[in-house]
Design goal:
Elements lengths: L17 E5 L2 E4 L4 E4 L2 H4 L8 H11 L14 H16 L3 E6 L2 H16 L5 E5 L8 H6 L3 H4 L9 E4 L4 H7 L4 E6 L2 E2 L5 E2 L2 H14 L2 E5 L23 E4 L10 E6 H4 L15 H16 L2 H17 L4 E7 L2 E6 L4 H10 L2 E2 L1 E2 L4 E4 L7 H18 L1
The chain binds pyridoxal-5'-phosphate (PLP).
């Protein structure tokens, strides 16, 4: 960005300015059409400008947006019940929820919960190399990417990293100073790397043996994207704490942390809070999103469309392999150089993300149609063919 930019210089110059979206479609400021196969980074699960979500937002804006947390609003409890019901069904446990404005704040709350649960001397949180848990200081410290820490040293104390999908490493790391293990069911930012089923199961067993909490970060994977409501369900495990955001607002900024009731109970009034937690507008959106995701059976859609999409991608010349779960996929390119391919795809009207130097990430709306999948596959095949 030029030094005339009004924004802090965190991002590389953006190649496109979008002005409108509908379903999987996006249009830029020049009127050019794109297929959005990134879904706002796993956010827009129901597609852009979804009428039910837009209507819920408009209705709530015209009714009540916000009162302070000194009072209740009539929308927060509805949304909390919906989140608790999803997680009760997924884990078999009754739980409680705290709403946040973002994923990082959801993880930040989970980290505070782990510390309060463990107590002094038992406050270490173990996470995996390659993970991503947020950009606040504590969630950055929990993010197992040491290069991202460097500019901000010293990091908050009490974080330990282990090799992802290595059960022996996790076993060795869980000494009595550990309050919790924090894992993504699919490492999203780390390259769309699924946790192995046995790894998640071993993490559950080890946490039970050592008395540590198992906290699962579902911020990128939750709400159906992987083909189940939550990514941990692929392993049939029940975490103690689950964090979520992204798809739960379909583009409205909202997140949440859920914990089993007896664990949430370690929090006392005054331990934590946020002006906008449970805000009427945000929680009206959450309820509308969950209702719509349930109505369309989003996990089943993601599972079916994900299978179809990955089979078609794998058949393209120039694609080495496809990995991921449901509609959170990475396409490993035979020729590497994902950045150039991503740019060529954008020019050809397909939005993707170069998640590693050699792989593209795809996270289209779960409502993506078969025709849109065919169109996206044809665009990728064309771009890769032109490079052969
Ligand atoms: N955790 C995971 C797994 C994520 O993918 C992200 C964002 O990409 C975050 C946490 C941080 O969420 P937010 O950007 O809403 O703070």
């Amino acid at each position: 960005m030029s030094d005339q930019s009004p924004f802090m210089p965190f991002l590389a110059p953006a190649p496109v300015t979008f002005v409108r979206g509908s379903g999987t479609d996006l249009w830029d400021i020049g009127g050019k059409h794109y297929l959005d196969f990134l879904g706002g980074l796993s956010v827009v699960a129901l597609g852009h400008s979804h009428p039910a979500i837009s209507a819920a937002i408009a209705h709530q804006c015209n009714t009540l947006m916000h009162v302070s947390n000194l009072f209740m609003n009539n929308r927060g409890a509805d949304a909390a019940q919906r989140v608790n019901a999803l997680l009760r069904d997924a884990t078999g446990h009754a739980g409680q929820v705290f709403f946040t404005n973002s994923g990082a704040e959801a993880n930040e709350t989970a980290l505070k919960l782990a510390r309060k649960f463990g107590g002094r001397g038992r406050h270490v949180v173990v996470s995996a190399y390659g993970s991503f848990h947020g950009r606040t200081l504590a969630t950055l410290a929990a993010t197992g990417q040491p290069a991202k820490h460097e500019a901000f040293q010293p990091m908050p104390e009490g974080f330990r990293y282990v090799t992802f999908n290595d059960i022996a490493a996790l076993d060795a790391a869980l000494d009595p100073s550990v309050a919790a293990v924090l894992l993504e069911p699919v490492q999203g930012e780390g390259g769309v790397v699924p946790a192995e089923i046995d790894y998640l199961r071993a993490a559950r067993t080890l946490c039970d043996e050592r008395g540590a909490l198992l906290m699962i970060d579902e911020i990128q994977t939750g709400f159906g994207r992987t083909g189940k409501w939550f990514g941990f369900q692929h392993a049939g495990i029940a975490p103690d704490v689950v964090t979520m955001a992204k798809a739960m607002g379909n583009g409205f900024p909202v997140g949440a942390v859920w914990a089993r009731r007896e664990i949430a109970a370690v929090f006392e009034p005054g331990d934590h809070g946020s002006t906008y937690s449970g805000n009427a507008l945000a929680t009206a959106v959450v309820s509308a999103v969950i209702d719509e995701l349930r109505r369309i059976d989003a996990p089943a859609l993601a599972a079916a469309r994900g299978l179809g999409l990955s089979a078609k991608l794998a058949a393209i010349a120039g694609v080495e392999s496809v990995r991921g779960r449901g509609l959170l996929l990475a396409v490993e390119l035979a020729g590497g150089d994902s950045k150039t391919v991503q740019a060529d795809l954008l020019a050809a009207g397909l939005v993707t993300n170069a998640v590693t130097a050699t792989a593209l990430r795809l996270a289209p709306p779960l409502t993506v149609s078969s025709a849109e999948i065919d169109e996206a596959v044809a665009i990728l095949a064309g771009v890769l063919k032109a490079r052969l």
